[in-house]
Every structure is written in C-alpha cells, then in structure tokens.
C-alpha cells in the first residue's frame, strides 16, 4: 500500500473529474436546451485547444490575450455551427441529428489534423513553476488553476440558470418550447446561445488539458469520457453532470492505483469508467439525478 | 382613443392541414377593451383560431392584424413582444420551477439587463430593474390571490391554483390582448366564479382586451361583450350573447336540427 500515491491519485482524480464535469455540463446544456445529443463535444475541446495554441505560438500573443481571443472565437464557432448545421435539422428525426453531430466530430477531427498535423504539440510554458506542493503532494500548477476555473464555471452556470433572464428563458425552453415562445422567448436564439456557451466552456477545458498534455487529437477522447459522466448523473441534470464528472475522474484514478499496485493489467485507467457506467445503468437506468422517460443514447 | 379601430382584426383566415380544413374563411374583429368569446362544438376550430392569432399556426390564407399591424408572418415570440399573451387549454406551467420563476419568465421580453449587466448585478442597474419587475409581479400575485404559494414549485399545486398561476404568467407579459383557451375547464363552481371575477377585473380595472374560448355557457353569457360561434371551421354567428343564443344556426349546431322546423319539401 502506497498511501501517498493513493492520495496523489485521488487529488488528480478530483481535479481531472472537475474538468470532466465542466465538459459534461456543456454537453448537458445542449441536450437540455435543444434535445440534441452532441457527439462532437470532444472536438470542441480539440478546436479550442488548437486555436489557443495557434494564437500563442504563431501570433506570439501573451496567454491571457490568446485565451480571450480563443473564447471569442469559440463563441462564434458555436453560434455558426448551430445556425448553419443544426438549425435546418430542427424537427428532423433524432437519429439524423445524431448522425450530423457524429459527422461534425469526424470533420473537425480531420480538419485539425490537416491544419496542425498529427503530432502532439506542447503549449509554451504559462506558469513559472510547473508544479507546486499542496499538503505534501505534487500538483501541476495548471491543474490547480484549472480546478479554480472549473469551480468558477460551475458557479457561473448555477448563477446563470437561477438568476439571469437568459438562463430562465433557457429553462423555460427546455421545459416546453411552445409555451416559452408564447411568453416572448425566441427559441432559435436560445438554441444558438446554448451552443455558443457550450463551445466556449468546452474550449476552456480543452486549453487546460492542452497545456498539461500538449495538443493532439487525443483531446477529443474527453468527449467520449463525458458519456459515462453524463449518464451517471442523468442526461438532463447539470448538477448530475458535475458529480458524474468527478466520480468518473476518481474512478479512473483509483482504477489506476489498483492496477499499478496489484493487478498490473495495464489500461484499467481508461476502461474503469465504462465498467462504472454499465453498473450504474443496471441499477439506476435514469442516472443519479435524471428525470425518467428521457431518451437513452 | 379611436373606439372604432379594432385591436385585433382577423380577415378571411383559412387553415388547412393537408386535406383537413380546420378553418374556412373566418373574419372577425375585437375592439379594444372588450371581452370577446369564441364558442362552438368540439372540433369547431376554436383553438386553431386562437393559435392563428398567437402565432403557433400560420394561416393558409388570410391576414391577422394586431393594432393595425399585419402580424400574419410573425413568429409567436415576436407577437408576445408586441403584446399578445395567452394561456393554454392543457396546463402548460414549468412544473419544476417555482411560481415566482414561472411568472418571471413572462417578463422575459420586458427585462433589459442581459448577461453582462446581470453579472454586474449591483452596479449595472440590473438590481433596480429586477426590483421594479418584482414589484409588478407581486401586484399580479396579489391580484390573483396566490400569495401563499408564490415560493411553491408549480407542479405541486392543485389544478385550480395552477390555472391561476398560468394566468398570472400571461398577465406578467403586460399584454394588450390576452388569449384565454378554456380558462375554466375542469374547475368546480367556486373556482369558476373566482376565475370569472378575475377575468372581468382584468378587463375593467387593468384594461386588457380579452379573447376567450370557453365551454361553460353560463360564464360566457355572463361576462362576454360579444360572442362568435364556430362550427366545422366556419363562422356561423357573431353578436351580443343574447342575439347569438337565439340564432337558429347556433341552435342547430349545438342541439341538432330543430324538430319543430318543417322538412324542406322535396321537389
């Protein structure tokens, strides 16, 4: 038993889990507002990270400027994507919409490889010290910052839905589009907004992961990790998405610990969340917080 | 105020769903400040008519004018912004939200502070704005006597109260014209009397024009200024409640052919 390793991995799990939670939240946001299951969520991370990398290396912008430009770009990206690709599909069968998002995922995956190449590229260093010690544990500074950013985003989401005009309109639209319209809410605007916010938030996660691991197409794997998180929490619950993300992060890292200490099978890290997913679906098919009778993917 | 210019003018509206003719060449006008009721047997096209006015359906032919402006092509949310509020035949509250939040959605198009000003809650003026809106919302809550349940989750309320909350949400829009689709369906006598009082007060004290669909003839005849009768998508009568009740076509639509009336002689 290596207790320090266990603690270290638990901390990693929490931090990575918070990131999963953030991505899962942006996935749920799109699903809740427009009933679209977005299989291109991982590519949002990928595009965001590459764009930020491009601003920082090619344009030599300082990090904060590049980051802000990236977010602005992603906002437009989400808006355009919704208006050009998804809006004409409103009212089409669910399976067509899902196919379209899978297609988008493949398209952006390939486009990024075409533009930026197939090899992982590191971000220029952003923090002066790579690692800091917290309670005797080594933590990447970026991860620590990302935890802060994740919490900030979550609080922002909470505030947005509870107290802002657009958040309220979004909740109303999620509940009943026709009624929301009769009260003056523009449903196309709400859809576009949900895609824009989702793209921006995913890009934040993409940049954080990119800074730690370098930018490569592996980033879009986060989009797949999001599924266990989201299904664990319930497809239409924002809070559930956050908790699901954290649970997946912890599962991963604990599986890694068990694997490295006793089993030595390798790769448990990647598979464990999906075992968890299968178990949860057996016990609670609607997730921990989901409403009953929603579509399963 | 020009009393002759109608607030709502429906001109020659037809609505077809494939081969089904839901409405055929219906025209009527609603004058400002009146309570105008649409009655008719089941499937006569009453709700279709209201949906053409609220924008949920787009008429196949004909024009809908609101305050003189052609709104036939506008989407429902734009019409809400112009001042047309509505309630639904089947309850359509946001079940998981509190009563207050439900009503606040009705303020959507009146709220100015967007995302950024909302973030600067205290300095951006969003707070003063919200307070002003809350005051008006509280007035509506007082008016409809739903103070005790304002913090409750809408889905947990009994039916009669939910109907009232739905009305409150529609009023929150500050509409000039309010469309009520069977406001009294499924209510007991007491609840119906309350609702009738709310509708007349809304009309007399708040100055809202009301376009209402209702099946309860007693209520319709009591509170409406004018009544229109639809049958199989066609207008068969319009006028004061008494005149409409006495109209032979209306009797025929509701009761079947008058037996006393002699059969037309076969040629």
What does this structure look like?
The complex is a heterodimer of chains A (297) and B (267). Chain A is an all-alpha fold and 297 residues long. Chain A has one domain (3-220). Chain A contains eleven helices and two strands. Chain A has helices spanning 3-34, 41-57, 63-86, 94-116, 141-163, 165-175, 177-182, 187-213, 221-233, 238-263, 268-283; strands at 131-134, 137-140. A two-stranded antiparallel ribbon of chain A has the order 1-2. The longest helix of chain A is centred in the N-terminal third of the chain and has 32 residues, at 3-34. Chain A starts with a helix and ends in a 14-residue tail after the last helix. In chain A, 49% of the residues are buried. The model of chain A has no long low-confidence stretch (mean pLDDT 85). With 267 residues, chain B is of the alpha/beta class. Chain B folds into two domains: 1-74 and 177-185 and 209-258, 3-Layer(aba) Sandwich (Rossmann fold); 84-174, 3-Layer(aba) Sandwich (Rossmann fold), CATH 3.40.50. Helix content of chain B is 36%, strand content 22%. Chain B is built from ten helices and ten strands. Chain B has helices at 46-54, 76-82, 99-105, 115-119, 126-143, 159-172, 189-204, 217-223, 241-246, 248-255; strands at 8-17, 20-30, 35-39, 61-66, 69-70, 84-86, 177-181, 209-213, 226-231, 234-239. Chain B has a six-stranded mixed β-sheet with strand order 6-7-8-3-9-10, with helices on both faces. In chain B, strand 1 and strand 2 form a beta hairpin. In chain B, helix 3 (99-105) runs parallel beside helix 6 and helix 5 crosses helix 6. The longest helix of chain B is centred in the middle third of the chain and has 18 residues, at 126-143. Chain B is globular. Chain B starts with 7 loop residues before the first strand and ends in a 12-residue tail after the last helix. Classes of the chains: A mainly alpha (297), B alpha/beta (267). Chains A and B meet through helix 6 and helix 7 of A and helix 2 and helix 3 of B.
């Amino acid at each position: 038993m290596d207790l320090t390793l266990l603690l270290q991995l638990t901390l990693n799990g929490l931090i990575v889990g918070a990131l999963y939670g953030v991505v899962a939240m942006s996935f749920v946001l799109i699903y809740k507002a427009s009933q679209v299951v977005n299989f291109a969520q991982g590519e949002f991370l990928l595009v965001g990270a590459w764009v930020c990398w491009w601003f920082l290396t090619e344009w030599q912008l300082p990090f904060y400027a590049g980051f802000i430009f990236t977010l602005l770009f992603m906002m437009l990206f989400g808006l355009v994507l919704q208006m050009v690709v998804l809006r004409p599909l409103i009212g089409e069968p669910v399976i067509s919409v899902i196919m379209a998002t899978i297609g988008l995922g493949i398209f952006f995956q390939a486009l990024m490889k075409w533009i930026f190449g197939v090899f992982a590229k590191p971000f220029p260093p952003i923090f002066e010290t790579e690692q800091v010690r917290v309670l005797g544990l080594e933590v990447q500074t970026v991860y620590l910052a990302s935890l802060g950013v994740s919490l900030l985003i979550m609080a922002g989401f909470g505030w947005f839905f509870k107290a802002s005009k657009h958040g309220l309109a979004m909740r109303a639209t999620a509940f009943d589009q026709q009624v929301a319209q009769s009260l003056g809410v523009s449903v196309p605007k709400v859809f576009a907004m949900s895609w824009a916010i989702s793209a921006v938030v995913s890009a934040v996660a993409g940049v954080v992961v990119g800074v730690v691991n370098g930018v490569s197409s592996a980033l879009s794997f986060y989009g797949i990790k999001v599924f266990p998180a989201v299904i664990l929490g319930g497809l239409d619950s924002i809070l559930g998405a956050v908790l699901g993300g954290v649970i997946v992060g912890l599962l991963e890292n604990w599986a890694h610990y068990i694997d490295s200490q006793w089993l030595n099978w390798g790769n448990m890290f990647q598979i464990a969340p999906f075992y968890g997913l299968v178990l949860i679906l057996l016990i609670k098919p609607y997730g921990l917080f989901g409403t009953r009778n929603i579509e399963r993917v | 105020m020009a009393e002759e210019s109608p607030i709502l003018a429906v001109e020659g509206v037809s609505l077809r769903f494939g081969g089904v003719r839901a409405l055929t060449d219906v025209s009527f006008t609603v004058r400002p400040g009146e309570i105008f009721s649409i009655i008719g047997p089941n499937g006569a096209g009453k709700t279709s008519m209201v949906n053409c006015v609220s924008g949920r359906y787009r008429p196949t032919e004909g024009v809908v004018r609101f305050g003189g402006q052609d709104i036939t092509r506008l989407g429902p949310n734009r019409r809400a912004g112009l001042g047309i509020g509505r309630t639904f035949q089947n309850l359509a509250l946001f079940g998981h939200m509190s009563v207050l939040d439900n009503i606040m959605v009705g303020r959507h198009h009146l709220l100015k502070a967007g995302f950024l000003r909302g973030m600067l809650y205290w300095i951006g003026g969003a707070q003063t704005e919200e307070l002003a809106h809350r005051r008006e919302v509280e007035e509506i809550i007082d008016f409809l006597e739903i103070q005790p349940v304002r913090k409750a989750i809408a889905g947990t309320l009994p039916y009669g109260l939910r109907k009232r909350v739905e009305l409150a949400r529609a009023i929150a829009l500050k509409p000039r014209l309010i469309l009520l689709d069977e406001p009294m369906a499924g209510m007991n006598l007491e609840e119906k009397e309350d609702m009738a009082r709310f509708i007349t007060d809304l009309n007399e004290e708040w100055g809202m024009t009301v376009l209402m669909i209702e099946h309860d003839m007693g209520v319709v005849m009591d509170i409406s200024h004018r009544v229109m009768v639809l049958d199989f998508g066609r207008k068969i009568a319009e006028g004061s409640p008494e005149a409409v009740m006495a109209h032979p076509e209306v009797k025929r639509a509701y009761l079947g052919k008058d037996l006393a009336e002699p059969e037309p002689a076969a040629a």
